Amino acid sequence: MSAARARRAGRRNSRSELAARVIAAVPLIAFAVAIVALGGWFFIAGLAVLGALCLHELYTMLERTKPVKLAGFLALAGLLVAARLGSVETVMLVLVISVPVTFGLALLAPETPDLTAPLAVTFLGILWIGLAFAHAALLRDLPHGGGIVIDVLVATFVGDTGAYLGGRALGRRPLSPRISPNKTLEGLVIGFLFAILGAFFAGLYQDWLSTGHALLLGAAVGLVAPIGDLFESALKRGAGTKDTGRMFGAHGGALDRLDAAMFAVVVGYWLWRALL
Question: What pTM was computed for the model?
Fold first, then answer.
């Protein structure tokens, strides 16, 4: 095959891959927009479904450690209810209570004499996934919180798309070869810029969001979303798996689609709370 033909084939593959990524994300985006718009307990129920899927994928991926799954799901539910009915302090109270509850449930599994790994992986799910979804609930209840949730998701998705396109077109320097060999510094920079643009254009339809705040929100998402992506990649590499699930076919599971958003929504909450 000639070099020119190879380049054309590469461009076709890139376009096909991008289209597949977008199509795979459409149902999740539609579901997210719907539950954000409904708000209230509908939003909490939607978060519970997504959070439970993510926890299930994490605990299945790390099944060999025998995580205390019931404790993780109970903690997720408790954190979401606390976020809906209370405040950050209430969420922290539930998190503290989850420690002895998880330990107590772990003691009921006599076939696991060493509880170090089960407890560690269980708390990983509670802290990473449970707290992230609780922050989404807290953010939704802030003034204009629904709009900010959408802005965060837009910036995350646009930034991820920009990183993919930029990495494929201009990527030369590996970002973290040990964790994710296909990610590049060039893709990271372009993704960061795309995240800012995504938040900026989303903010144009929100007269209560200033341009400065939109750009700041986009920059914050652009900085932390790739960390969420790398965080999950590190766990998958340690587990020896490519994807956490098959919910989105060849594009992985819920955790693969939401890893960046879970980091982004946390910083989105604290930033928007500080700006109010």
Answer: 0.90
